[in-house]
Amino acid sequence: MIDFIEENSHFRLSKAIYKSGHRFKPHSHKDTAISIVLNGIVHEEVDNKLEVGRSAVTIIKPAEIVHQNIFTEDCTILCLYLKDIQTKKLKHNEILAEWAWMNGLNCIPYFTKILQSKTEKQIHENIAELLRYISFCKMDTTVTKIPDWLADAKEYIDTYYDEPVNVTELAKKYKVHRVYLARVFQKYFGQNIKSYLKALRIHHSVASLINGCSINDTAFINGFSDQSHLQRNFKQELEQTPLGFRSLFK
């Protein structure tokens, strides 16, 4: 199911909800897309290269690129389609030239600012800010293949994000020192474990809110101690209250 939140001559913003088992055969879109996976698991293949992502993955998909998808969990995705004639005029638009998957980015505040833009100038400025942010984050990810044990540790956090994650116990599980775990996690994923965990919980919370959950239930199912804890973290990360965000993206 796809709901259009906003569409104009510059961009289209939509919320897409896909059930587990849903598939798309090879296809393409006429406009370049920046997508945020809020929850669930999506598999995407381009030119025989496969990427698999969970919550807090940002996907850059150039216009007309042929891709296919499989959803192995119920999945909610925010999609920002940039009208081609506009992307060519924007600063940092070179970031849109290649298909890319990036973990742990927080693009939601930029989507919010774009949606709240009142003029064409504001739209262009806010989209350019989003592209600058993505460009900076991509430049910072220069490492190569992730060690298997670290990928497994991240998978553990991705799965149990709604529970307390003890770094010392996690390090013991993989027979490394907690300081070493923290250092290599920062190296390969561009942020510390605490920040990454917070990003996961916020992205899952956004999915819960725009899918109709109450604020209380959203806090409970996504690892926050109570509604106040959710509200505080939500405001810090997204510059919006949960209620204000849900109203904007309904």
Itemize the secondary structure elements and their pairings.
Elements (H helix, E strand, L loop, with lengths): L1 E6 L3 E8 L4 E5 L4 E8 L2 E5 L2 E5 L3 E5 L5 E5 L3 E8 L1 H4 L12 E4 L4 H9 L3 H20 L8 H12 L7 H7 L4 H12 L3 H18 L4 H7 L5 H12 L3 H7 L2
Antiparallel strand pairs: 1-2, 2-9, 3-8, 4-7, 4-9, 5-6, 5-8, 7-10
Structure summarized in a few sentences:
This protein is α+β, with helices and mostly antiparallel strands and 250 residues long. The protein contains ten helices and ten strands.
Helix content: 40-55%
Radius of gyration: 18 Å
What is the CATH topology assignment of the largest domain?
Jelly Rolls
- Output mean pLDDT: 91
- Estimate nothing, just give the exact number of structural domains: 2
What overall form do the CA principal axes indicate?
globular
According to CATH, what is the class of the largest domain? Mainly Beta
Q: Tally the helices.
A: 10
N/C terminus separation: 14 Å
